[in-house]
Write the structure tokens for this entry.
Amino acid sequence: MDKNGKIFGKINIIDLAAILIVILAIVGITIRFTSIAAENVNQKTNFTYVVEIEDIRMYSVNALSKKGLATDKQGNVIGEITNVEYDKMIKQLVNENGEQVKVTTPLRYVAKVTLNAEGKDTDSGYFVGENTELSVGSSITMYTKYSNCSGKIIKVQKQENQG
Amino acid sequence: MKKTKFTIIDAGIIVVLLAVIVIGIKVLGGNYNSGETKEVYFTVLATKQDAGVSEVVKAGEKVSISFSEEAYATVLGASEEPYVEMQLNEGKGLYFQHEVEGKSDVKVLLKCDAKISDTKIANGNVAIRVGEEMPVCGKGYTIKGYVVEVEEGQGEE
């Protein structure tokens, strides 16, 4: 460093410190938001998954049937609804005679919503959106343009590798 | 006083800082999409209300549709029908339905302008979706229910 505070007579020490801070900020942000990518070999993958939503009214079935994009609470897209099927909501219970009976719940339905999504196939699982794991049996809350609902993932199918 | 020089390094720093700010806003800002503004028609259903409550809801009245946000809508009409309670008798394996005296299901039809994107219909920060809990707060009353129907109207001219 010379008497003017410059290294090799060209770069000011303040400039150098600012450059280092900016580089550190970029590295920090990269690590924060791509930590999964750094740890695992990611591949963009298409998934088809089915969410079962129980005990809903026809209002919700109708709103889901308008399809469209589904997001998580933060607004990250977690898939596009491609199909909605519904059936009567049936409960199984044992009656006073000890017989197992199936009882249809009036005005309630169970919907099976199929979604297509581009996600990541990582060492720790399948992910869509920002960090929503696709795992059979796990709960998921999804928001569409017209509805919000929570259900359980009952099927996950990996479609193809995109490299 | 020594004259300050603006060097190519300074320019580079400013460019990098601007890039970091832009990327930061994009990453942290989420999928913000304001969308277009349209009129939206929606229905709030409140179950098990006191019978006759729909009479206090007046068509044309401006009501608040959130306890915490500034969001308003205009009442187009209100209707009610008897509240029917369902009870499961597990022993018999049957549901029994019966009207509850003095209680009603109240439907309030509302309209407001809302921003519409591919993923959301929102009046300010209040999302209008089937399944969302929503109050209807008018002069002298508050009805708490859920959105059960949403329809898009015409766009702004």
